[in-house]
Amino acid sequence: MGTAALPIETPFALPGALPSWPASDGGFATGVIDLGGLEVRQVTTFAKVWSTTHGGEDGQGATFFEPAPVPAGFSVLGHYAQPNNRPLFGRVLVARDASSGTTTGGASPFLAPPLDFTLVWSSPDDAASFWLPIAPEGYKAVGVLVTATKEKPALDEVRCVRADFTDACEAEEAVWSSGDKDGGFSAVTLRPAVRGIDARGVHAGTFLAQSNNGLAASTSVVACLKNTSSASYTSSAMPDLAQVNALLAAYAPQVYLHPDESYFPSSVPWFFDTGALLYDKGNPTNPTPVARDGSNLPRGGGNDGAYWLDLPADKEQRERVGPLTVALGRIGEHVGDWEHVTLRVSNFDGGLVRAYFSQHSAGEWVDASRLEYMDGGNNSNRPVAYASRHGHAFYPRAGTVLQGDARLGVGIRNDCARGSVMDAAAGRCEVVSAEYLGSGVVVEPPWLGFDREWGPREEYDLGREINRVARFLPRSARERLAKLVNKLLVGEGPTGPKMHGNWRNDEKES
Q1: Which H helix or E strand runs over 248?
Q2: Which of 122, 145, 272, 394 could potentially form a cystine with 290 if both were Cys, beta carbons 3.0 to 4.6 Å apart?
Q3: d(Cα 168, Cα 206) in Å, to the nearest integer?
Q4: Do you know which Pfam families this protein is assigned to (predicted)?
């Protein structure tokens, strides 16, 4: 019997073809991005250099690639690496000096060949060697190279980048480790150390090679790219409003609620229409009904405690608007909570790259190659998300996820299955903010400026609540559960969306 093919041996493509994005004066989905004279393209096809089927994720090893073919006039900045337990789905940036190598005012070219290479690690059978480019003064290496021999690469096989076009990077995801017996080699993917709407770091798709023998390529000598362009986001590579709406039509997720779900999501206007009240710290006994568009909500001020939203005082209305009990008694009540799915697309071609699933106070990024998609037709590129029963944390697949100590079976249970559908298709969703497009392009609804708490303040006797639902657990298990609940579920009412770190910064990993 033959050996089963590894997942990485099959390149991933989205289920459907990419649509033709609306034309604009900007640079979104044009295939090239100008970082201020340094032009970059993404390469998504590769030639295998070396593969191992031992260790790594699921014990299936990893494979190391060089980008191929490289567009004419562009230079390799580093190679690509990926675990073998998923379809091949990578993107590495290549670059060219848009000034054609000329210098102005004595400035150096944007790209330069390395002076030499340092051997980071060789496999025991000498079938693979990992090389760190030694950058000239004033330049940085952006990745490492892999060869199938012990011979150094030619100096013209890679380019280093002028330091002002680079930014600090950090490890993102483990790719593979050899173990201590083979010199303690490991490979990790890289990402910009500073991320968010205002950050300038650019993800190059390269990886970092390290070993325990003193020949380690560290994040102090390997960098990511940096956007030095003075152009606005709109005129560089970000989508305009028509393109944003086209992206929503192409990728808006379909959310499955659990068949036994009791508490359903609502629109903000429904929440206000059904009786949400605005409380004033200076006059807490006389709450005010909220206008349908939130126009009477105080804006700004952060979460200063001066105001908060609560459910209607009438018991019947209060039960209609939000749950008073969940699996852990009152703990975990999240009226007015903001769970979300974030879609990350490539500015080079508009392709879906990853999705982030928020899960209480944490979450996870999932590559497009590992997502579940809707079936057929124009919806074939739309991913599926599952909202957990009662808690509404999002997951990429159906099933039960235990957040906590799975070994001891202690944690927060999240049950996901296909029940009713919350469809975020075009026409059922609304763009409420796009600050990068400039003032007036998207008029934000008044409620978006309410920073304070969107749900009731609850005071819990945490020990009593935990003991009530977990009284048969050993004391140590109850203590672990209490810590977990306190971390994930207990706190003041959820604040407005602009107060969350994901509004302007990168998502928080679990």
Answers
A1: helix 241-251
A2: 272
A3: 14
A4: Vps62 (PF06101)
Query: Strands, DSSP E only, in 164-258?
Result: 166-167, 169-179, 185-192, 201-202, 207-210, 224-226, 254-256
The reported pLDDT for the residue numbered 472 is 54
Spell out the residues 6+ positions from residue 410 whose beta carbon is closer than 8 angstroms to its own.
Answer: 404, 473, 477, 480, 481, 484
Residues of the chain with pLDDT under 50: 1, 214-216, 322-333, 459-462, 510
Dihedral angle computed from the Cα positions of residues 504, 257, 395 and 54, in that order, rounded to the nearest 10 degrees: -160
Position 12 in a domain: no
What total number of domains does the chain contain?
A: 2
Distance (Å, whole) CA 401 – CA 395: 9
Among 118, 183, 126, smallest CA distance to 152 is for 118
Same domain, 369 and 470: yes
351 and 18 Cβ atoms separated by less than 8 Å: yes
CA nearest 29: which of 16, 42, 39?
A: 42
Which residues lie closer than 8 Å to 26 by C-beta, 6 or more apart? 234, 235, 236, 237, 238, 239, 240
Q: Are residues 232 and 261 in the same domain?
A: no
Tally of CA atoms within 13 A in the half-sphere of 255 that contains its CB: 23
- Does residue 13 sit within a domain? no
Q: How far apart are CA 315 and CA 376, in angstroms?
A: 45
Chain Cα centroid distance, residue 172 = 11
Q: With 0-12 CB in 10 A as exposed, 13-18 as middle and 19+ as buried, what is 202?
A: buried
Tell whether 289 and 420 lie within a shared domain: yes
